[in-house]
Structure formats: C-alpha cells, structure tokens
Amino acid sequence: MKALARAGDAAQVADLFAELALSAPAAGAAAPSVLSYNTLLNALVEAGLAAEARGVFDGMLAAGVAPTASTFNILVKLYAWRTAEFHLAYDEIHGMRGHGVAPDVGTFSTLVTGLCRAGRLDEAWGVLDWMMQEGCLPMVHTYTPILHGYCRQGRIEEARKLMDFMEGAGCPPSIVTYNVLIKALCDDGRFDEVKEVLAEIKTKGPKPSAVTYNTYMDALSKAGMAEKAVELFEDMRCEGLKPTGFTLSIALNCFCVHSKFSEVIRLLERSTELNWCAAVVAYNTVMSRLCDMERWLAILELLADMIKKGIIPNTRTFNILIQSLCIRGKLSIAINLVFNHGIPANVVTYNTLIHWSYYHGRASDADSMFEYMKKVANVAPDEVTYTIMIDGLCRQGKFDEATDCFKESLKDRLSKDLLTPLINRLGRKERIRNIVVVFREIERQGFVRNYMIFEDTVRSFCTVGFRQHTKIFNLGFLLEGILGPGKEVYPAHNGRRKR
C-alpha cells in the first residue's frame, strides 16, 4: 500500500485496503491497523479526495481503531494544504485531545506550512506562539515555510532576519532553509549576496547540497553568466558533491552558449568518471544548440556517439537532426531518412518537412506529405501544420484548396491565429467568395463568431485596400455575405462549439 501511495495510485491503495478488510476476518487475521488506515488516508489526501478521506476517518472510528497524532496530521494537511479550509484544520487540532492524542510539532508545522502557502504569514506566527504555549518547540521545518513565504512575497530582508532569529532561538537554519533564501536571491539577480550566503554556509556548518549549486548555476546561466556557472561546476566537485543530471545539463548548455563544443564532448565522455549516466535528454540539449549553430555534421557525430554507448535516440533527437539537415539545404536526405529508413516521426517531424518543402519550392512534395501523414502515418495535423499548409497553398494561388484546408482544421477548433492570416491572403487577391465560404463554414460548424473576429477581418480588408472608394462596394457586399441580412454578431464564446 505504501508503494502504491508513493506512486500516486490512490485507487489501487483503496482497492488493496478493501481486500485486506474483507480477507482478514476470514483468514483469522487482525483487522486493518491504524497504520493501514493512515496509509490509505494519506493517499486520498494527496490525491485531493477530501470527501473520501473524511469517510475513511469516520470508518476508522466506527471500527474502533484509535487514531494517532499522524492520523490527525494527515487531516490537518487535507484542510490546510489541499482544500484551504483552515477552520476545519483548527477544529481537528482542538479535537485531538478528545481522542487522547496531543498535537506534536508535525501537527503545528503542517498548519504553518498551509498558512504560509496561502500568504497568511502573520497567522502562521500566531500558530508558533500557540504551539509554544502547548509546550511544543518549533523546529527547522516549522520556520522554513515562513521564510519561504517571505521570499515568495519578495520580503528577502525579513527572511534574513528570520534566519538570525532561528539562530538565537537555538534552531539554526538547515541547508534546505538556505536553499530557499538562495533561490529568492537568484530570482532577484542578487548574485553578490548569494556568494556571501555560500560563504556563511561554509563557516556555520551546514554543507551545501547539489540543489544549492544547481539553483545558483541555473540562475547564472539564464542571466547570461555562463562562465561563472561553469566555474561553480568545478567548485561543486571540489566540495565532494556528485553532479546530478540537472547539474550536467546546465553545464552542457553553458558550454554550448559559448560554442565550447570540445568541452561538451569531453564532459559527455567523462560521464562514467563523474558517475553520471548521460541520457538522451543531455544529448538532445547539445544537439539542439548545434542545430541553432547550423552544425549538422557535429550533430551526426553526436548521434553516432550516443548509439555506440547504447543510448537510444528518441523522436526529439531525430527531429533535431531533420531540422538541421533542412536548414543546411539537405531536404532530400531528411525526407529519405523519414520515408526510407524508418526514423520515428511525429507531427513535429512532418511539420518540419512540409515547411521546408514549401520553402524550397517543392510544393507537390509538401502536399503529398500532408496527405501521407494523415492517411498513412495516422498522425493528426495540428495548428502549426494547417498554418504551413494554408500559407503554402495561398502562395501557389490555390485559394480553393486553402479554404478547404481551413474548413478541415475546424474539426479541432476555431483558431483566430489561423483565420487571420488566411483572410489576409484571400483579401489581397480579392477572393471574396472564398472569404464568405470560410465564415459560412464557421457558422455551420457551430462556432461562435465574436466581435474580435469581425474586427480583425475588417482591419485586414482595410489594410489590403478595400477602403478605397473603388472597392467600398466589395467591402459592403462582403460584410453582408459574412453576416447575412439582418444578422447580428454573436457575443464572445471563447471559441467553443455549440452543443
């Protein structure tokens, strides 16, 4: 039951508990214990099943099983974390003594955490006073949520004062507490202060964790300070900490930013030495950067390297390769890999090939691939696919086919981002009949045409010259065809179908 609960499968936990409850009497075994009830109760709470959790607790009492402090802590978590019904959380704590159970530090810490997540920091301090009156001393995990709450609200100075208060109260911050502060400082770009905090950690005792360095490195990398981030990678190893997959992904990205691909290869080759299994995600990170740099040969070398190491490429790996080949003008090789060598393809793969086929003037290939993906590969087109196709068909002057393609896209939903460029294309060529067909199909499919669609449409007409006196008649005729005689624009409906 615990294993299933950890996997988040509350339904299976409930089934197993029911099986235990039914089979125990028949086998002469004891009925489910409080531990079994607590396991089920916690699984339901984690799944957000409040009514079911309450039912299990009531059933537990009816079965004569005495609840423990852990039982009530789970209920407090339900009301303070999941449902934010704090009055019920307080009721549970006040009712504990009626069952012969006293609140413990876990009870109060759970309530404090919920209050801090809800931004009720002053109330959380009140709970601290209450627990001390009850003779229960706060611990690090009681204070840390309050510090986290200050950081979320940007009150970093108050967070630092709280850490000083913890020291004075004989409850020094843990590395988890320091990590929360470091994350807040990094988010605020206060990197000099992060260095000070790291020095403070080393003098006061708690050892920095991989999370400490990962947080700092990631922030430096995103701030464009890749070289400093890489230096931290070596500092981390000097501290005796093993890099995690996330650490190495940051380092790989930093090397790629500065085009230090020799360092990238060396780092991937050192994966065994670093006790790190370089997975497909790491290779994809590097290959994506190489694609941006248009270095398709280097991508091929990396692909060969990962296959030699027994790392199985995924669809994203091949999509990066296909994109890099297309950028370098090697469309035929890319198409050959997909259609003749069984490279796994998804909608992104086909979108890439269709786009570059149109780009290189191979419209017939693009049209064929569009049909192939739908009818042979059974890959459903997405909005990107339809956008590429409609734009490509319009460029060829195939306005009827473009209109039909848009009508087909309505099977999924009405996309304003797809409609607007189509109307622009049709408007430039004065394809009034096609525009009327588009709007009539929108109405026929049951989509609501709101004022934003008409506003964008009229603006498109005016942009392409329909406001000129020689064409104003066409504009009036077009609007009448779209709206229909005596029709009004429907109110906004978020693009959902009528049912």
From TrEMBL:
PPR repeats lie at residues 33-67, 104-138, 139-173, 174-208, 209-243, 279-313, 382-416. It comes from the Eukaryota. The keyword Glycosyltransferase does not apply. The keyword Cytoplasm does not apply. Gene3D superfamilies: Tetratricopeptide repeat domain. Keywords: Repeat, Transit peptide. Belongs to the PPR family. P subfamily. This is Pentatricopeptide repeat-containing protein. It comes from Urochloa decumbens.
